[in-house]
Amino acid sequence: AMRLESPQFQALFTPGLRGVAELFEKKNYELRIAGGAVRDLLSGIKPEDVDFATTATPAEMKEMFTSAGVRLINNKGEKHGTITARLHEQNFEITTLRIDVVTDGRHAEVEFTTDWEKDAERRDLTVNSMFLGLDGMLYDFFNGYEDLKNKKIRFVGQASERIQEDYLRILRYFRFYGRIAEKPGDHEPSTLQAIKENAKGLAGISGERIWVELKKILLGNHVNHLVRLMYELDVAQYIGLPLNGNLEEFDRVAKNVQNLCPKPMTVLTSLLKTKDDILNLDLRLKISKEEKNHGLFLVKHRQDLTKAVGPEPLKPYQDFIMDSREANTNSRICELLKYQGEEDLLREMQQWTLPSFPVSGHDLRKMGVSSGKEIGTALQQLREEWKKSGYHMDKEELLSCLKKL
């Protein structure tokens, strides 16, 4: 048996958690930390979210919390056995142990249990199937800790059974592989076979759920290996990726953006060859309007908008921003520079502030230009001169330029 006493674990014991723990102890209900938080704590990481599991049923929890005057919030999770209690300005999501009675590859009908091993058995991966007592004691029925130490990603029990309970687990496998595995290609052949045989099940999973997982895969490690694997195992076609994805470009861009914190769509667009690929992706994954426009922007400009030869390599990008009337062009250009692997230019671009054009229609009226049409034309000509000067000319220089125009 192993007992955890790390600072990350100790840091969880806020007044809120102590209060919750006392209530469960009084009633003799068992309460343990579950799933991903256990994995993070064992890796020395402070978990962002902490989920709890208990032997108490939702009805017992409601009765216990209500009697103690503890506020309960959003009861959406109740039919799946989850109660959310709010104590000392902190939310605690606590789920009754359960077993899946009926699964259709998307949803499960559950039955409550008090058997910790049965609950662990219905979880997807061994590294996500552990529990941690509030005394630091680890409960690990499927060697999850061993797998975590060896950086192995394995399904709990039979891979094909776990996948058929929820086909999205195929993508979760890839995501956690990119998060935990040390090197690409370290898969159990039987797991890959199970993924290939069940890939078609992803066709029935909603685009929104797929996109949530895919975004995380795109920003994880070994992304080029994992995306190639998606093609080899017939997964790609069921999750909206084009049949003839540009894997060479994808490899190149995946290397370019390493360490540059790209948006997921910046990475994914390298796989897409045309505007239609983006539109088809949108139909399947229901990406946001901003993500769709970002993809279309990259497809359109990734080849024609490149750095200038000479002393001002950033100038074409700056000109593009100055000519654009859209608010987010600056951030799109930064993503384009990441895509192109222009790390130095990206740094320069991030420090560049948009200069404001120093001449107004008012200045021209003072000089005797009165008609609106003439003012518009003159301003446009001066803007071009200003652009040629690298945005350095001031108001005086530009107005004296006007006399020559």
Task: Tell me about this structure.
This protein is of the alpha+beta class. It folds into 4 domains: about 1-145, Beta Polymerase, domain 2 (2-Layer Sandwich); about 150-240, cca-adding enzyme, domain 2 (Orthogonal Bundle); about 245-355, cca-adding enzyme, domain 2 (Orthogonal Bundle), CATH 1.10.3090; about 360-405, no CATH class. It is built from 21 helices and 9 strands. It has helices at about 5-10, 15-25, 35-40, 60-65, 115-120, 145-150, 160-165, 170-180, 190-200, 205-220, 225-230, 245-255, 265-270, 275-285, 290-300, 315-325, 330-340, 345-350, 360-365, 370-390, 395-405; strands spanning about 30-35, 50-55, 70-75, 80-85, 90-95, 100-105, 110, 130-135, 140. It has a 7-stranded mixed sheet with strand order 3-4-5-2-1-8-9. Strands 6-7 form a two-stranded antiparallel ribbon. A hairpin with a 4-residue loop joins strand 8 (about 130-135) and strand 9. Helix 7 (about 160-165) packs parallel to helix 9, helix 11 runs antiparallel to helix 12 and helix 20 crosses helix 21 (about 395-405). It starts with 6 loop residues before the first helix and ends with a helix. The model has no long low-confidence stretch (mean pLDDT about 90).
